[in-house]
Records
---
Amino acid sequence: MSSQPKGAIDIHNLRVVFGSKGSEVEAVSNVSVNVKPGEFVSLIGPSGCGKSTLLNIVAGFVNATSGTVEVDGVPVRGPSANRGVVFQQYSLFPWLSVRQNVEFGLRMQGMASGQRQTKARTLLGLAGLLAFENHFPDQLSGGMKQRVGIVRALATSPQVLLMDEPFGALDSQTRVVMQQILTNMWQQFRISVLFITHDIEESIFLSDRIFVMTARPGRIKAEIAVPLPRPRTPEMTASTEFISLVQRLKVLIREESLAAMGSELKDGGLTGFSMEVGPQGIGEML
Amino acid sequence: MGEAISLSQKPSAPGAAGAAPLPKKSPEPTPAQLMAAWLSRNYLSILLWCASLGLLFAIWYFGTKYRFVFFIRFTNIPTPAEVFDKIFEVNKSGKYLLNIGISVRRILAGFGIAIMVAVPMGLLIGRYRAARDLLLPACEVLRPIPAIAWVPLSIMLWPSNEISIVFITFLGAFFPILLNTVHGVTAIDPVLLRAGRCLGAHEGRMFWHVILPGALPHIFTGFAVGMGVAWVSLIAAEMISGQFGVGYFTWEAYSLISYSEIALGMLTIGVLGLVCSGSIRFVGKLAMPWVSYSSGSNK
């Protein structure tokens, strides 16, 4: 919670290949992404484009085949409390209360019980969750669980926050509220965020910059700066700037979704309709 | 942190995120109120429990009263009253209670050792492939051997009869606890392991703070099953090689053709088993308060 922005992420020439020799699948190909200290960057792309893989590498769960990942100049080697992760699935420990979940990282750092309790309560207060500190995660709604998940990831004061479609499982109304909460928290903590999503509006509303990824193997197709001012408000989603950005991203992503589906359809998906189509063909058809 | 308050005050946030129904905290109800509340919530269950036990008792009572004979024969079965009288008769000397005490002691020893060995071993097997490859094949070979088949070897193996009976009780409890612990570890949601690691938990702390609590519901299932098998094993061992214990008491009654003592012995085993499994459930509830909130557990 220092006032100095921190957490530069540098992903350079990253390549990831899954599978054993002979049946190798290239998931990510030659990707370079950088996040400046305190910046909010989204990665968006069609499903299966390797965006989650990319995040897992930065988190330290998966090793890259080649290329480098550095956070504040230090190469990533395995998971660390310096890189907070918010998962797509609910990942609170069901046997710990909300407060104990938030304390978990501090406890691993060896912080004394009283101290970490104070810190956890402060953070829960910021997220409007103090009334639920003694509840178990199974007593909370999905939106609240993810808020606790964010608070828990922030508790150890990480350099960066990595978020893997954190609102993917929530209904659209809850989603909008969560986005607002996240931008507010992000502005307070001045932490860099790498955010994975497939939701175009979400990425624009939250981000300073957006990287669009191609269908597998994932490459960076475009880098788009979001010129909307801060703090962001829900009203901005009706502005012409916002809408034109949505249009632009939609076009970029649709091309990739079709390309992704095309490679599947080519393998006989449309033969039943006696059609002869390749990736480009479907694009024109639609 | 001064300006930080702004977002916490958003009244829409918790509501819009869909607050789950929360149990209301009322000011400290008295035990009598708690009891009444519990009764009113569970009266149907209580009724069914009574019906369940009542049916069993009715079959016994009427079967012995009218000396029912149709393929199954109630001719020599003692009546409930005879068995009830027997309770007072056997309690004139301390031998009956001594038998119970000795059986319980054997259970506690065998079951306790089984917990201490099977849980750590199960955690290791569940977590590490090498431990699995090293330990599991040996376990799988020994597992199908029923406890009674162990009796002769056990008597040869251990220095005293008492220890060999405890050993057989241990064996009965060991495998259910081991297998359930292994299953508990492998069933932990991988995202919880990732969450633990990216919050700075190293391997040793993962065991204590993530893997053990994550596997605990399954471990307690293992305890419940293991306790049942431990009793089965104990009674078998006592019947064959014991000098004391409820199993010995029952077998001795059979040898002496004392019908009502046979029934009393059986009932004693039933009640002791019930108390033991009830205690495990009780301890499980205390140790895992979160489980009652998991979906589907209160159906």
---
Amino acid sequence: MSEEIIKDVIVRENEDYIINMGPQHPSTHGVLRFEVCLKGETVKYLIPHIGYIHRGIEKMCEADTYQQIIHLTDRMDYLSAHINNEAVCMVVEEAMQVEVPERVKYIRTILDELNRLASHQLWWCAFGMDLGALTAFFYGLRDREHILDIFEESFGSRLLHSFNTPGGLMHDVHPNFQKRTKEFITYFRKKLPEYDQLLTGNIIFQERVKGVGYMSREKAIAYGVTGPSARGSNLACDIRKIAPYGAYDKVQFNEILMTEGDTFARYQVRMGEMWESMKIIEQLIDNIPEGDFTAKMKPIIKLPAGEYFKRVETARGELAVYVVSDGNKTPYRMKFRSPNFSNLFVMNELAAGGKIADLVAISGSLDLVIPDIDR
Amino acid sequence: MSSKIYDFSSLTGSIDAALNSWMSPGLAVLTELVIIGLVFLIFYALLGLFLVYLERKVCAVIQNRVGPNRVGKWGLLQTIADLIKLLMKELIPIRKADHLLFVLAPFIVIIASFMAMGAVPFAKGLHVLDFNIGVFYVMAVSSLGVVGILIAGWSSNSKYPLIGAMRSGAQIVSYELSVGLSLMAIVVFSGTMSLSGIIESQADGWWIFKGHIPAFIAFIVFLIASTAEINRGPFDLAEAESELTAGFHTEYSGIKFAFFFLAEYINMFIVAALGATVFLGGWMPFHIGNWEGFNQVMDYIPSIVWFFTKTFFIIYVIMWFKWTFPRLRIDQLLTLEWKFLLPISMFNILLIAFLVLMHWHF
Amino acid sequence: MLNKQELSEIILKMVPEATFPEGTQLTEVIVPAENILALAEGLKNNKETAFDYLISLTAVDFTTNMTVVYHLDSTQFRHLIVLKVVLNDRENPLVDSVSSVWATAEFHEREVFDLFGIRFNNHPNLKRLFLEDDYGFPLRKDFRDEINIIER
């Protein structure tokens, strides 16, 4: 490529005070680098630099079978690993025209919501820590541990559980699964108000997040922001409502929408979603139908030649999987449209003009998972 | 009335007399200085280690954890193990840093806290420097520490430390005013700047009870402003780790880092001791007006116990702040001082002057 | 919510050369490279279509040609459409940037440029996103990594 397109477009002035936030920085939650230009404490602009954890998952997928790809998707948004798996499974099932058993749909949906809960809990911990409330971290992790224990009992792994497989599940859930999940919901219904007592009502916290990082609905759409971050700007973008998958069409739940569009609105959306997730699980957990844990699948899956597209709602937004198949056992091209990739690039719009501390609060409220950006 | 309280000056006086009988007066003074210096060094180090241990345990309780419990009984030796680790760590030289200032900065910080420690009255008669301007002296030397922080940030030749140092400068210059004014409130009440004089004036009740509501307001302002002055959460902007990695001491390693760390904890002790002395009566036992019987029972508790109980109560409150509140933003921090605390304490001191003038206080 | 028939009528009014492949999962449109920007603006600004949300912008290397794929959604009507631009020049593929229409396209286009080497006209800041400047274009089918060869 010629030189002139590689050069930077922003001309840096001599008096600009440029600091690098990351790739090793406590508040970027991973190997993300912001090149931040400061004027005193005020952020003039920031440029995100990514690619520090680019593993070429899309290229690797081209050499893997569909069962193997499941394990790669865990490593994108590792906090919604189960939901990522489900996206690939559903695109394969749709292409093969396999009808998965009802039991699988119910279990997948419950696990999706448990995963969303665990992810939002970790987000809450990290958000508190970004703002300097270190105790929040331990409150969140204490409760997240219960969910991870449920995962561990059923799948043998806590974070990256490749439990989904095209056609169904790897094996049936543990006999204790229903009991423990119900116990957890009763427990967490008591514990979630503690989160509000510790952080939400705190005057310093409210001062730090209210009116900070305003994102208008138009900006959210233009930058393709999805998930709770966009719902804080009154953009109804929940794929679970728009195109229900799994057992989402059988449950009643609200899509939390806030109109303020600031960091506090995004915070409240996630807090509300935790309540909604518990509602969904409660509606499903007693009604899991009996049946097979997987549909009958051939050992070697070959998708018919064509292009397939499927969207799911992860804890951070819309994950879209786009598969081009030429009829072989490996995909010809696999594209993951990851929610964090789009959510990241709105940062400059939100943080410019604010203080450094606001930048940290905003990046916390967008809940970025860096491996999902780089893939 | 205070006759029951053990006076440490009899002990120090006998040591002084013994030394004078052995050697010439000049040599005796020199020996005394060395002894006091050594005692203070040991006390300083032990106190620092204990405060670090205490903070870990307190934050562990607040965070549903156990805290250090592996090294020694209840993890008591954990901080000593950490100290050994820090002592053995490599001191990483920073290229293009201003080496003289870089090495000097931790010493300035630690010397400032050491000097302030000298004026703290630990018990009756156990008081190294009893100035007639004791309050003034403690405030003056304890704010010297910010010079060290500024130098540390400047000499590191790094961007995060510089921002941290500038924040720290702005913060301490602002909050020094409120600390000063809230201490002045009690100076107006007691009519003396000498710390021992202030304590003596509380023999019939501590100022926080005697001084009506204005003294209580002054105490609250003092707690907030002194927390800010020692750079602790929720005002730890100078070392806000989620924003500036580690702030002014980002580039420091090993024992030089430990110096900053130690000085921070000793500063916390000093402001707590100052608060306890000025507002809560220092080593003075809990006395109520003319209740002779009750006051005499209280006098049986040694004065050094009273002092440390009160001081550690304030230290606990300061730690409690840190582990429950999120951090403020820099503009909110300055707004809090200039728009709220400073007007409140200025009005407060006027009110107190009026009270004292009308003899309405006890 | 418009069906395929209605969408194709609207699109044919904007770009008469557009073709609509049959038997696809979603509504697909193949447009010539020179019309993509006009079509993008038209689809976004048309009151009936209102495709204001670019879900993803990617490319596929079909070895004979490069295809740039745009997945569009409307936050108002929630209908989906796939736009495709076939670029026959694999050596120096060039297409108009749509970053003036959807802000998020700027970064998706940088990713496509990084991984496929497809250049976008009038892109505000076209430089590599993940990889080093002298790295090849790994998602091209003829890419060979000389250092970390994994052949299966």
